[in-house]
Prior knowledge:
Elements: E1 3-10, E2 15-22, E3 28-33, E4 42-47, E5 50-56, E6 63-73, E7 76-80, E8 83-89, E9 91-100, H1 112-123, H2 128-143, E10 147-149, H3 160-166, H4 173-190, E11 216-217, H5 221-225, H6 227-231, H7 239-260, E12 270-271, H8 283-286, H9 291-306, H10 309-330, E13 332-333, E14 340-341, E15 345-347, E16 350-354, H11 358-378, H12 382-394, H13 441-454, H14 460-472, H15 476-486, E17 504-505, E18 511-512, H16 519-532, E19 533-534, E20 554-558, E21 569-576, E22 580-587, E23 590-598, E24 602-608, E25 611-617, E26 622-625
Parallel strand pairs: 20-24
Antiparallel strand pairs: 1-2, 2-9, 3-8, 4-5, 5-6, 6-9, 7-8, 10-21, 11-12, 13-14, 15-16, 17-18, 19-20, 21-22, 22-23, 23-26, 24-25
Amino acid sequence: VTYRREVFASWPAQAIVVRITASKPGSITLNAALSSTHKDPRMTAVSDRELAMSGPVEDSHIRYEARLLVQPEGGSVSAKDGAIGIGSANAVTLILTGATNFKNFRDVSADPKERDENTLTRLRNASYDSLRTAHIADYQKLYKRVSMDLGVTAAAELPTDERIQGFAKGSDPQLVSMVFQYGRYLMISSSREGGQPANLQGIWNESNRPAWDSKYTVNINTEMNYWPVEVGGLGECSRPLFDALKDIAESGARTAKEQYNARGWVLHHNFDLWRGTAPINASNHGIWQTGGAWLSQALWDHYLFTHDRAFLRDTAYPLMKGAALFFVDTLVQYPGKDWLVTGPSNSPEHGGLVMGPTMDHEIVRGLFEDVIAASAILGVDADLRAQLMDMRQRIAPDQIGKHGQLQEWLQDLDDPTDHHRHVSHLWGVFPGREITPLGTPDLFAAAQKSLEFRGDEATGWSMGWKVNLWARFLDGAHAYRILQNLIYPASNGDKATKKPSHAGLFANMFDAHPPFQIDGNFGAASGIAEMLLQSDDWRATPTSLTDVQLGKAAQLNLLPALPPQIPEGEVKGLMARGALTVDLAWKDGKLTRAVIRAKDAEPLQVRYAGKEVTLQSQAGGVYEFGPDLARSK
Length: 633
């Protein structure tokens, strides 16, 4: 007898569905039961086909209930001793649901039993085929927006673990496209409307006491999770993050007032389900004021990628404005200079408490820039806009140090032999936009020198960031080299055998810090997209705001960091700032075709291999380019 087990987690059904079939009728006999890693679970037989398990979470106000519905086809069914027995069935479908009493960070009054019952009321009479069809339709609606073909070699026939083992030394471009699409799969599967944002482990945590508590660390990790969302055509997956920001702005306003006597709201270096915003852990990384300002970048990006004015007015701008008001009230003048600086703060997670680390200033300048642009688009808060423009010019500038590097601090303290995993002061290159090859060439060269000093080896998420950075430095070969370091067999290490840990990918392609930490998956997906398409302001200057920054024009850089290891390929459906959709094809390392679809009418500048084309796009317009940006008729 050949048995088949199929499992899927369905967002529309809000359930995990298991289907067991056999090649011969009457061949399935099993017992279905529930168990929990939480203490003292209570088991109840709801009916002869349904079990319930409920209980508390230790040291928490959370209460839960899980339900298991068993649907046999043929054979016998009975409930006994906390299990449902199936005898001689032709097929069996198991439907698992779960709920808690959590409503929001202030309210845990929900009834998990009622929630489960409401879910199962919709599912008890649903066929397996209908559940599967609805699940696939929901998933593919998002996933199929972007396709990527980078070519296939014989390596694609090997098992995944062997492909990861051989990637650095072989040719396996299809694994690169799979890493990109795997990141999109993880995002679709872990961050959907109505749920929580993807945390440090996404949603894939098997422990009651996981690494870093499965929190949201916001000095890089949570932001990195959402880097590939917009470019990957998954804008809806940001909604849990935006909902969390609304909560954080509420609790963060209390922290801003009580700790700093400031308006607006602030978030330090992490938060969790309960939306804590105050400094936490050790002072050398816990006192850091710019977590909320960095997360606010995702709000402005969502507008730039969608041109959703209602979202900008109702959601993004109020949150961004609140984040900016905090710094209006807390920036202080640096002694002996007409500079405004943040502090006390740190350069995550490198060194102790300081005033005015470079990363802070890059983030705050970016936040002020985005609020200025948003207020201009909406035609509101002219006085605040003028104040932010004045303060933005006075924020301590980026500086070049004695080693030709971009300084990480106000003082010239960088050590060229320091290979720290954080590259915080390079925020202005990526995900920021103030350090660019054409706008700030001296700072651009200094930032690249700093990245060279840090080296190519790092933790998983750090290598994910470095892929993006080298793509922004327009060096596809180096970006690919980092990708080779990232697509490498990971190990948690073993103290008993003295086996060292190693960052990379586990056999199931989960990224390893180590241990498992999902941000590296998302960082890699973003970096692969950055190699092929960039739509940020690569001509920004530190002293003025361009039409691009004000949301009045769009810029594209096609194949800006194409690695020589991927000489031909095709990608369709990438999204770009300016509410643009972009298809690209290339051969022998050169662009053969680009198709750009515009949602709105606005100036558009397209750049490829040193050439530029400027046009006025029209709403719904489609623009096709051939080699060397020759316009197709």
